[in-house]
């Protein structure tokens, strides 16, 4: 099996290291030439909650050749149109494109490469790009080896090819097959909304949100909005890491302390994670906020569901994008505090 990792950033570097060490024929494809050169010269190095290094083969996009059997899509959704159209000549009729992107991009991916080629999944571990050739695993290693991916066919069937791809991804970390792909993607979206969005909006690690009373209560409300909008669109959320995310919906304000306790326990292994969107802001790059928290107000249209907490995250991240600055935690958390005060008065 010939594998391409399309987007060898923080996650792709780790994926490439473990697949290469596992004896797979894999190419790490990335536009950052210094990173590609370093990967070829010294290999892919994983630091953080583990220490690991492996020899890898890396190329820039213009050096793709031949045909790939499996493409692991880890680029940002911002670039899907151009990246996927450029990929078409390198696909066989039975090639598989596995979308491991944030959000729910599968419909767009399928519209370009063909529905029959697409499977989808969610990455359930965190990573931070340190420097060319080096990525930090921020999820506890034991958690990573137990829950690294969920994957599934778009129609929910458990096919021979999904089993085959599971065996490949198991070389990296624990891979679980989902028969509720839509629910799996929405569950990952919920976690991204509650923690990646706030991490970017506040300039903090997940642990900073978990430890701050206003931050964690805001995360609870972001999750609640996501669940309510998902339900209004016919989504049944899948369990993630053993956690029943649907149980996080708020029936009343009295549920908040219990939801806080659940989040603090469930997210403890990811305390060190800094959102990739925050890393984008630090590099003065455009983020994927429209494909993360921005999905919720769009999907809420016509449902009568209000989404003020997701709206505020989007507004703060877009403000940082436009001003090319990194948010200030103490400043931006006050806006969430004000929103919570307004909510109590209603």
What does this structure look like?
This protein is α/β, with parallel strands linked by helices and 346 residues long. Helices cover 46% and strands 17% of the residues. The chain is built from 14 helices and twelve strands. Helix 7 runs antiparallel to helix 9. The longest helix has 22 residues. The model has no long low-confidence stretch (mean pLDDT 94).
Key attributes of the depicted protein:
alpha/beta, 4-stranded mixed sheet, 46% helix, 17% strand
Unreliable residue stretches: none
Number of strands: 12
Structural class: alpha/beta
Spatial strand arrangement across the major sheet: 5-2-1-6-7-8-11-12
Rg over CA atoms: 19 Å
Produce the secondary structure layout:
Layout: E1 2-6, H1 10-21, E2 25-29, H2 33-42, E3 44-48, E4 52-54, E5 57-59, E6 68-73, H3 80-87, E7 91-99, H4 106-113, E8 118-123, E9 127-131, E10 134-137, H5 141-146, E11 149-153, H6 160-169, E12 175-177, H7 181-202, H8 206-211, H9 213-232, H10 256-266, H11 276-282, H12 295-300, H13 308-323, H14 329-345
Parallel strand pairs: 1-2, 1-6, 2-5, 3-10, 6-7, 7-8, 11-12
Antiparallel strand pairs: 3-4, 8-11, 9-10
Quick structural gist:
By secondary structure, this protein is α/β, with parallel strands linked by helices. The chain is 46% helix and 17% strand. The strands form two sheets. An eight-stranded mixed sheet has the order 5-2-1-6-7-8-11-12, sandwiched between helices. A four-stranded mixed sheet has the order 4-3-10-9.
């Amino acid at each position: 099996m010939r594998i391409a990792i399309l987007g060898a950033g923080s996650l792709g570097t780790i994926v490439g290291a473990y697949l290469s060490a596992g004896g797979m024929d894999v190419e790490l494809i990335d536009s950052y030439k210094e990173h590609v050169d370093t990967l070829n010269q010294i290999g892919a190095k994983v630091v953080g909650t583990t220490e690991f290094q492996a020899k890898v083969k890396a190329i820039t996009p213009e050096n793709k050749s031949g045909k790939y059997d499996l493409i692991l899509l880890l680029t940002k959704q911002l670039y899907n149109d151009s990246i996927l159209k450029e990929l078409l000549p390198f696909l066989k009729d039975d090639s598989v494109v596995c979308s491991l992107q944030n959000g729910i991009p599968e419909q767009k991916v399928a519209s370009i490469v063909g529905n029959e080629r697409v499977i989808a999944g969610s990455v359930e571990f965190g990573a931070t790009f340190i420097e060319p050739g080096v990525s930090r695993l921020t999820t506890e290693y034991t958690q990573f080896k137990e829950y690294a991916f969920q994957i599934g066919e778009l129609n929910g069937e458990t096919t021979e090819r999904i089993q085959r791809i599971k065996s490949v991804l198991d070389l990296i970390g624990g891979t679980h097959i989902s028969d509720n792909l839509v629910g799996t993607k929405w569950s990952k979206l919920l976690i991204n909304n509650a923690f990646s969005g706030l991490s970017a909006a506040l300039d903090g690690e997940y642990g900073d949100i978990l430890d701050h009373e206003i931050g964690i209560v805001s995360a609870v409300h972001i999750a609640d909005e996501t669940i309510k909008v998902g339900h209004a669109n016919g989504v049944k959320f899948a369990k993630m890491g053993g956690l029943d995310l649907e149980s996080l919906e708020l029936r009343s304000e009295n549920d908040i302390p219990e939801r806080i306790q659940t989040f603090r326990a469930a997210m403890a292994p990811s305390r060190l994670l800094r959102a990739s969107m925050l890393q984008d802001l630090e590099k003065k790059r455009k983020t994927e906020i429209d494909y993360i928290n921005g999905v919720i107000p769009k999907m809420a249209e016509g449902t009568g569901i209000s989404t003020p907490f997701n709206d505020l995250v989007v507004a703060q991240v877009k403000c940082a994008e436009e001003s090319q600055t990194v948010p200030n935690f103490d400043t931006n958390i006050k806006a969430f505090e004000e929103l919570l005060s307004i909510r109590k008065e209603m």
